[in-house]
Amino acid sequence: MSDPFFIPPSGADLPRYAGVPTFMRLPYLSPEDPRRAEVELGFFGLPWDGATSNRPGARHGPRALRDASTMIRAMNRATGQTPFAAMQCADLGDVAMSPVDQDEALGNAEAFIAGVVEQGIRPLMVGGDHLCTLTVLRALRAARGEAFGLILLDSHTDLYPPYFGGQTLTHGNPFRQAVTEGLIAPERTVMIGMRGTAYDTEDFDFGHRHGIRIVQIEEFFDRGFGPVMDEARAIVGTAPAYLSFDIDFIDPAYAPGTGTPEVGGPTSFQAIQCVRALRGLDIIGADLVEVSPPFDPSGGTAWLGASVLFELLCVMAPA
Amino acid sequence: MSDPFFIPPSGADLPRYAGVPTFMRLPYLSPEDPRRAEVELGFFGLPWDGATSNRPGARHGPRALRDASTMIRAMNRATGQTPFAAMQCADLGDVAMSPVDQDEALGNAEAFIAGVVEQGIRPLMVGGDHLCTLTVLRALRAARGEAFGLILLDSHTDLYPPYFGGQTLTHGNPFRQAVTEGLIAPERTVMIGMRGTAYDTEDFDFGHRHGIRIVQIEEFFDRGFGPVMDEARAIVGTAPAYLSFDIDFIDPAYAPGTGTPEVGGPTSFQAIQCVRALRGLDIIGADLVEVSPPFDPSGGTAWLGASVLFELLCVMAPA
Amino acid sequence: MSDPFFIPPSGADLPRYAGVPTFMRLPYLSPEDPRRAEVELGFFGLPWDGATSNRPGARHGPRALRDASTMIRAMNRATGQTPFAAMQCADLGDVAMSPVDQDEALGNAEAFIAGVVEQGIRPLMVGGDHLCTLTVLRALRAARGEAFGLILLDSHTDLYPPYFGGQTLTHGNPFRQAVTEGLIAPERTVMIGMRGTAYDTEDFDFGHRHGIRIVQIEEFFDRGFGPVMDEARAIVGTAPAYLSFDIDFIDPAYAPGTGTPEVGGPTSFQAIQCVRALRGLDIIGADLVEVSPPFDPSGGTAWLGASVLFELLCVMAPA
Amino acid sequence: MSDPFFIPPSGADLPRYAGVPTFMRLPYLSPEDPRRAEVELGFFGLPWDGATSNRPGARHGPRALRDASTMIRAMNRATGQTPFAAMQCADLGDVAMSPVDQDEALGNAEAFIAGVVEQGIRPLMVGGDHLCTLTVLRALRAARGEAFGLILLDSHTDLYPPYFGGQTLTHGNPFRQAVTEGLIAPERTVMIGMRGTAYDTEDFDFGHRHGIRIVQIEEFFDRGFGPVMDEARAIVGTAPAYLSFDIDFIDPAYAPGTGTPEVGGPTSFQAIQCVRALRGLDIIGADLVEVSPPFDPSGGTAWLGASVLFELLCVMAPA
Amino acid sequence: MSDPFFIPPSGADLPRYAGVPTFMRLPYLSPEDPRRAEVELGFFGLPWDGATSNRPGARHGPRALRDASTMIRAMNRATGQTPFAAMQCADLGDVAMSPVDQDEALGNAEAFIAGVVEQGIRPLMVGGDHLCTLTVLRALRAARGEAFGLILLDSHTDLYPPYFGGQTLTHGNPFRQAVTEGLIAPERTVMIGMRGTAYDTEDFDFGHRHGIRIVQIEEFFDRGFGPVMDEARAIVGTAPAYLSFDIDFIDPAYAPGTGTPEVGGPTSFQAIQCVRALRGLDIIGADLVEVSPPFDPSGGTAWLGASVLFELLCVMAPA
Amino acid sequence: MSDPFFIPPSGADLPRYAGVPTFMRLPYLSPEDPRRAEVELGFFGLPWDGATSNRPGARHGPRALRDASTMIRAMNRATGQTPFAAMQCADLGDVAMSPVDQDEALGNAEAFIAGVVEQGIRPLMVGGDHLCTLTVLRALRAARGEAFGLILLDSHTDLYPPYFGGQTLTHGNPFRQAVTEGLIAPERTVMIGMRGTAYDTEDFDFGHRHGIRIVQIEEFFDRGFGPVMDEARAIVGTAPAYLSFDIDFIDPAYAPGTGTPEVGGPTSFQAIQCVRALRGLDIIGADLVEVSPPFDPSGGTAWLGASVLFELLCVMAPA
What we know:
Chains A, B, C, D, E, F: One of its GO terms (biological process) is putrescine biosynthetic process from arginine, via agmatine. Six copies of one chain form a homohexamer. Chain A is 33% helix and 18% strand.
């Protein structure tokens, strides 16, 4: 049971639109705060979009998701879980990342996350663009000493080869890089939701060469989310795995506020069921990325993102 | 057959964006108008959101729904009904409700609706927040002398205990209050679409203790709207029943303009089929509530709400 | 194989948000450009909404669709097609159409399209309101000397009788006019997606009298898009057919930016599958109409429209 | 003193966002209503934009202005006037104008206004695009038998020659046409606020040839609104004059919701002072045109337009 | 000199869009925090709009203003002040105010502010609607034992008589109530910026009867802000005074996000100069109210409000 | 006189919303196009915001400005100029700039502009963030062999020291860098419009140390734009000078669509007069930067930006 210190105030005591907005209304703990030692799961933001090839704005994601997440209440009605009571959670703040220098930005994030992981806190990262995920994977890999599985819910594989000269890392290739660096185990990796136009088949080819399972959206809709997620569970197995959720997995009618939307995606209900289906796996870290508030005039994407964050949290909570 | 006085002008005679916007382009009849005696079904607005716990704005609902409803044409293509020809309908105006005094506001609404019901007019109320529904239930109960059934399409049960001290009525507990006051018959009450996070299980527990049937969204999607609505019809039976439609029943991708959206809901098609499935029941009154125009920048929620209003009308029309 | 001149630049060479926006980043060829002789399929815009009975703005459609279409990449991930490599495509520009004079506007469009067709270019027209389609049908009929089939994906039949006195052509009756003028073969015509309210049954009656197959949305959802599109293929057969896609076919949650939205429509996934199902037919021309940017604040409708345009292109590409 | 029937309800009795929205919350009187005989000043809408050369949408102006105008209270704080008490005002509704046929649309408007003028009602027209003004000028000229003065507040002269072939009337030439038809007396005509780019000097040349005084914005800002309006009063004199206010007179920061905005215009304060400066003239009719709600996402233009309408009303009220 | 603990992080160390958003990036101190004893000036929010007669939404003001205020840097370029270095400032959080019960909400706010004042912290309140100001005035009056002066920058006097039956306090009468309760000294009260329509002259009459100086906007523009503010300084004198800034003081082109905008107001430059002109007075407390985020789609009003908050802070800083 | 090839089509021949949108509807000439040799003034875009410290989005500026600029007509009404007839202008396209690699991006831009300058084309650059200006200054300096004057209209000096570690160039220091590199002559440099909060006085100190004249907004409003611009002309003198216009010079009520708005700025009228006042100087190049379409929902900033571009063009045109 959580210490009451770690329990968010109820909307019945302080209206949900009131108060300083931390993730889920959890206590904010700076790196020096001694109570960090008690934290089991930590939310933190990587407010950075310096690897974005198309429409920028994901640097504003953590701010918008903190705001929207204050609407979340204590209990998951569908599963009956009360995750804040089941484990001690906190908001660990944002990493200072230079918007104009990729190397420095990634370095700062890796150092911060290494500290988090070192303290025994499971990371729940809020992006930022998808290259941010690479920093979490690196920190987890370094701490664990071995590669782990990956479940990716996304409309893109992010296995693209580098494009644009010079700097080779973009938000289109974190997982290609992660495979190359040996961070993730490709044969225990599954990617779900791919669709839209492509430059060529190079990303799929790369994935297939390495044994990654890629589920295109047509297969997803044909078979239904239940069978697809059963297969995903089987691929990942009981060993440790990371869960990455790109908001553009969901159809842009539901989530317009993202940089590279692709039409023809799942509904919010389907997306949430996909996350819930992963309950019981050994999820060592997770993230929600690519929420871009400048393209989300009604705030609906942030609200959906906050709802997904809560489901990610519940999947990581003790049974 | 309706008197031509009660037939809305066609868009072929006056473009639908033209003219003073009344509900469905029906004649507006003030309380003193003698033609009120001929009315069988009356639209009216309760422009009030003084019981809203989260984002306000539903006070602007009747205005936006009158505007959008001028786009509705004469015939329901799916059912073949022409409701304005089948019964004499009118716009009865809005009730003057103090935005700063709940007791006075509710009292005025109850008095107005009592007058409507007394004239033999079936009420089709346009909110306003969900506490507005309580005033219709009270007026109908007073006039009929006995409790009636209820079908609620909503993402919340609105059976919550009072929250916030002092004033105990909020838009989160009209139906708890209605059960307590004996306005509705809980064993003939069915609530469909519940989802999202919860403070606890108190609302469900209350409902179940009183015999209310609650269909969560997971069950709704598992079984499909057909079987669920068949069960709803069976629960309500042939005795009188009230139908309350909270726009947040529908997924926020379709209906962003509401105060407390919950992701993972039905599509507009599914929602409309749910209403249509109730044809033939003895619907003594209905409402559409919680449309909040300030959160509806594109006007899509108002347009969807107007479409739902038309379906509510058709369900109340003679076969 | 296309001449490299006709291959759009990749986003890897020039970011997709950069450069002068032509349709799909194809070369723009004016009527006098000699390279028009090499073109097999030509995009062009009819920026005109002078026949719109409700909310105007479709005149701005071609501009917004050019902009959004620069996001399209080379390959259709679902089908594996690379249409720009398979046939030589170009942007032929917009027709100068008077916004205040219907006769002149239609005449200019017909003359322009006649020229396009004469050059052996298959037309892919971007509207504009739905009356624009009539000009393409007239030009194709004149060039071919016989009527052809029609597949219409739309929420309306556009078989309405003239409404408003005087000028009889509106965006509500291009296909009634096309039947009357003998442009299309009604027995090889299928219309899919009809829904919403109606003035009366006159449009359906007209269609049925002439042998047109009309699939209402309820049937579409009951049977699923697969069986419905199989039937559509059978109706159209192997003879030449025209394909017209009104963006209001898709539910307004996905496509709010249109003049006369009707709730309860298909998702973007379903809509795209409907187009793909037509592969292999003899499509002699196609269009996407009724995108109205002033009602599309987030640009999502334009992006969905551009995605549909790409699918139309793929259906018209060699197998 | 007005009959209480003609006094709008106070916001203290019915909140201003409540009730069926008529212009200024005045009673709506259809053409057949016998109380029209008592009306001294009549608001009515011309919901039409069929002569718009650029961005359409002004057809939605009357609807939006009725909505916004319900915010207006009884008294002009600056002048102390209570116009609704000083003369009997009413909402006469909208004219049915075909969106697709200019001749019919203008004919209907002229017939309607002729009827209004015949009943001795001074017209206060709400557009619609600027060609709508021509119909008021024609009706007034026909009734009076002689030309009258004109004050135009606008960023354009609307003295342009016809452009686009065929139909020669556009919203760019109502006043050229009015001069040609002898409706207005050019030597008693003053146009204020002209700015932006031009095709050529033909409109100015035409105006100057006929003796029209044109005040460009540079002169307006140099001299200040006081001296400019003093000159305008002197030009118009004590004989009858018409007052036309195009919302694009005001800078687009204040009034973005219009079809052809021109940057560098007056503030709302300056614009209102310009209207007030005309008090005491013999204003026989007035209008507010070119409010285009699709380009007014925040509704600020409609609210400013409603405020201008109230000032126009006050200028037309007895001293 | 401030303790470094009270110095906001620079954007050069943590980008301004990053981190948990407190007012001005100051430390958040809960009521129990011992460091509150060191605070000299405290920001806090009253997230409440339960007294709003027109468009609601000001309850969301503190959230939006915290967000926007993270853009403020250390130094006032115009005055050279560095207020965070000159006095120890903090974010004291929001008061829990029931959205449905006015008595409880006001009582909670008064108790909270009494505690703030008791600790010797000068209050800088962020609303909320204008009735929130009454709670600050009451707390200051109780602590000081005598009435104080008032400077109000607003488009309304908020001296209106109660309207709507029952509950008599609304956001239209805080200062009438404050005069009645003896909180403020009317002869040392000045109100600047009044404009728009009025129900009658009752508010002005009340003010004038009590000796309040009211400067209408016409006088403001005629004389210029310099002379007007000189007079305001003279009226208030050197004795203690409270400064209340309603965002609707500024023209809605600059500040659309408010509940009751009035056209024809000052620019942001003029408004800021008005605040700066008060430097050197004995300002015992201040507020910024009526920012309503639902009507501020671009966030510009919140940004302007945050800029005004900084100017209020500078006026309250030691010279 | 221009060759007709270089004259944009009139809106009377092709409505201004029609056609492929190039800058000002000028012909687009790729680097290889032989007609580039005839060009005297070239528009081109630098679609890049990789040096933005706050809100990104300026990479989308050239696209939005091309779109808006199609509304510009042939003649400057205020000055009588017809710049397209006076010199041969063209749209030279956008530079391919990597969004993720600053060095490569700047390098590509410099190479492109060097080519433009080499062809004798005067550059009119459309950003992009303000660091883009550095590439133009470098290319011009290299071609000319000596430093030139600078007029900057902006709310910031962009003389800030590097902030964020690593990469030292940001959009906050192009002119510091330009001074350091000897590109501009500081004693012939004038910066106008500075306001808002600051980190410290380091930027002003740097400027003053080098002899740059900085006019803060308070001085601008006190003296008026006329005297200020007279002084600017005197500082720059008759020798060559560059003119850089940051859209955030103008108040955010007029230009909300920018990354770092500062309240309290000039109106659009005043801003345009500032540009016009520079006529007759030897302007060797100019730019408009920092238009950020994601923060410009109504498109008003792009339209204002296009109007400013036209004024920049007129200032560069032969007398």
